[in-house]
Amino acid sequence: MSLVKYRVHEVAKDFGKQTKEIGDIMAKYFTAPKNHMQVLEDNELAVIFDYLTQHNQIESMESVFADVYHEPKPAQDRPAPKKEATPAAEGRKTDPAGEKPAAPAAQKPMSRVPEKKIVDTRKGGAVNLEKYDERLENIAAGKTRQMDAGKEKFKNRGSNQRRGGGFQGNKRRQEEQDRMRRLQAAIAKKHPLVVKIPDEIAVGELASRMKKTGAEVVKCLMKNGVMASLSDVIDFDTAAIITEELGCKVEKEVIVTIEEKLIDTAEDKEEDLVPRAPVVVVMGHVDHGKTSLLDRIRKSNVASGEAGGITQHIGAYQVKVKGQPITFLDTPGHEAFTAMRARGAMVTDVAILVVAADDGIMPQTVESISHAKAAEIPIIVAINKMDKPTANPDRITQQLTEYGLVPEEWGGDTIICPISAKTGDGIDNLLEMVLLTAEMRELKANPDRSAHGAVIEARLDKGRGPVATLLVQNGTLKQGDVIIAGTAVGRVRAMTNAQGQKVTSAGPSVPVEIIGMGEVPGAGDDFHAVADERMARELVEQRKHENKMAAGNAVGKVTLDNLFSQIQAGEMKNLNIIVKADVQGSAEAVKASLEKLTNEEVRVRVIHCAVGAISESDVMLASTSGAIIVGFNVRPDNNAKENAGRMNVDMRMYRVIYDAINEIETAMKGMLAPKFKEVELGQAEVRNVFRITGVGMVAGCYVLNGKMQRNAQMRLLRDNIVIYDGAIASLQRFKDSVKEVAAGYECGITFEKFQDIKEGDIIEAFLMEQIEV
Questions:
Q1: pLDDT for residue 80
Q2: pLDDT in tens, 241-296
Q3: What is the spatial distance between Cα 349 and Cα 376, in angstroms, rounded to a whole number?
Q4: Residue 307 confidence (pLDDT)
Q5: CA distances (Å), 677 to each of 600, 680, 712, 764, 770, in order?
Q6: Which helix (H) or strand (E) holds 678?
């Protein structure tokens, strides 16, 4: 109920209506008032105000304020009012139907604010100024008399208020405030406040933007079924509904992030685009000849230096074929490098799928096909090793059709080129097909803008610091540019092309190796050349904070405080591993391979993965977290060796990933829970049940077969349903405690933490024996 009592006859009086009219409105929407003195509720007043506003529209806002400001009349010309008049011009207009006004008083508009009244407080004609020229010693006494008179006057005024004069003044002020609120509501309805709301906003902030009290917003939320405090955050849809209900207009607030300010993502105009070189990825199974094919194309010999026949990380090279440049990416074939192979496909235009003619389609070949199709890039199949006598290209062609690669000769659109990377046969035809396919795609880029592209590879060089291989996809990268890649930022100090030559700029589709980054970026990260280095560092800090928060929320966070409790909490054991590698791509690949070894009983967790030599801090982390260190093409420094020996930290070094996987699997076998089998001992029938003070329920049993053995495992069957599964706590023969009781004898048996024993139950005793692997 409203704090100010507003009665039916007062509303009728304020709006110049008959009391019956207000009663009719009440009867229409609520219940008819009992009499004209009934106090109205807030919701009833709101409905009456809305009804009268809708049925008594004003012509313009000027008409509302026309009679507010006027010149004051002389006091002597103004007749004394007989009673106070309450203006309500809105309700006194003639309606469109031509009806007469509801009350005669409404025919003449009245002032909405009290007129000024000038009162001459001087009772006599002249003021005796000489009385203020008294001596100083009389001032104190005069002041005392004034204070006494003031107190008497204050008391008299209080008694007048108690007699009703003050109440009337308060009532008039309250009525005036109510009228002003209604006027403001009418103005707000005509010209609603525009409130900008982001995707999420706190309730208190929303109230501030709407110029409403928090209580009003919370009340409106509760009416809509949302329980929220001022500090709670609500989404845009909820905030929009509340804002509109409270009479405001909603606009979506677009928040421009640092990334949007810093990185230019505008679309290029067609007239700015020029043709660019195609980027080709060479994919396929391990040892099918991908590196040998690139070796033949770029007339170099790096294939023999690869360990175990596996390309250790992605390389990017640019060669010219008939005067036209082509950029090649070489992806590893082993399944451990699936993520790298997928990353290679996402930045390229054409895929060359290398399949050995004497080997056929292999699992990694199928994965390569899937990556190329997911990237929506055309596939050119190169059937390699055609020089071998066991080559069977027809079988390869048949197998390819099973994966949606139908050759052109068979009515499909897949180009198939038989080649031999060893002899060079068919290489020229393959390159011509690459250029033809690229020409059909109309590859273009804008060299006259800031560069962006992808990090192909990154590593930490002992002499030069972080080194990154970048593939520029659009724009031109210049020496001195500030670039941001993932959580790494830096300035390009030097650039080297695929031939090892120093260059000062690199356009679209050009791979370059740069130095100058603050840290090693992640392989596969997008990079952007930006103008503001300070803002770039701010963005990097923001990204690091977001990554840290995400890592903090992730399951399996390793800290010194909760490591032991995490391992003890569940039945699953943890094998913690620290991975250090020579390049970022290899580190990620080793991590992915090891984490795949997780099974139901042992979870492999790579708690740290980084580039560079094994350091003392790595050994410290391994010691505190119970981890082993896996090094891939790296060695520990002297301090790390000494600390590892002192702390008994296991370090394992590898050059080929097969060895790492095999040795980790062997280590996991020692951690697997041993297998057990159940060996049945015998059965006994419960023939009587006794309750013994201090012991509990004792089952008087007869051994049917086998034997009952103290501390053996047992299960209690009732109608062949297992009621209890536990252990035999005690075994008694008469008054003696015995180790076992054979068949045909009686005994007393108690169970661990189980008392629900009934006659006729069957006890099965058994032991669990470990199975030797």
A1: 46
A2: 998 888 888 888 877 777 777 787 778 788 888 888 898 888 887 777 777 888 78
A3: 9
A4: 43
A5: 19, 10, 14, 15, 6
A6: strand 676-692
Alpha helices in 442-583 (DSSP H): 533-553, 563-569
Both structure tokens of 611 = 């580039």
Cβ atoms of 447 and 508 within 8 Å: the answer is: yes
Q: How many CB atoms lie within 10 A of CB 378?
A: 17
Ranking 88-97, 363-372, 386-395, 416-425 by mean pLDDT, the lowest is 88-97
In eight-state DSSP terms, residue 103 is S
Q: How big is the CA angle at 389 (ends 386 and 390), to the nearest 5 degrees?
A: 85
Cα separation, 649 vs 630, whole angstroms: 11
Write out the H or E segment, with its range, that includes residue 494.
strand 488-496
Taking alpha carbons only, the member of 179, 197, 178 closest to residue 248 is 197
How many C-beta neighbours within 10 Å does residue 768 have? 10
Classify each residue of 176-205 as buried b or exposed e, where b means 16 or more C-beta atoms within 10 Å of its C-beta. Answer: eebeeebeeebeeeeeeeebebeeebbbeb
Non-local CB neighbours of 699 within 8 Å, separated by 6+ positions: 686, 688, 689, 748, 749, 750, 751, 757, 761, 763
Strand partners, 495: 503, 514
Count CA atoms within 13 Å of residue 310 on its CB side.
18
Which H helix or E strand runs over 724? Answer: strand 721-733
pLDDT value of position 155? 54
Could you read off the pLDDT of 447-476 as tens digits, one per residue?
Answer: 888 898 888 888 888 888 898 888 898 899
Beta bridge partners of 680: 766
- In SS3 terms, 246-299 reads as CCCEEEECCCCCHHHHHCCCCCCCHHHCEECCCEEEEEECCCCCHHHHHHHHHC
B/e letters for 547-576, b = 16+ CB within 10 Å, e = fewer, are: eeeeeeeeeeebeeeebeebeeeeeeebbb
The tokens for 265 are 């993502």
> pLDDT digits over 162-214, tens only?
555 555 668 888 888 887 777 766 666 666 788 888 888 999 999 998 888 88
441: left (phi over 0), alpha (psi -120 to 50) or beta: alpha
Report, as an integer, the average pLDDT of 40-44. 85
Total Cβ atoms within 10 A of residue 266: 6
Residues 490 and 540: their CA atoms lie apart, in Å, by 11
Distance (Å, whole) CA 605 – CA 551: 14
Ranges of H-type helices in 136-281 = 139-162, 165-190, 203-210, 214-223, 236-245, 258-262
d(CA 331, CA 343): 9
Amino acid at 86: T
pTM of the predicted model over 0.85: no
Concatenated DSSP letters of 385-405: -TTSTT--HHHHHHHHHTTT-
For 727-743, write each residue's pLDDT tens digit. Answer: 888 899 988 899 999 99
* Helix locations, 288-333, DSSP H: 290-298
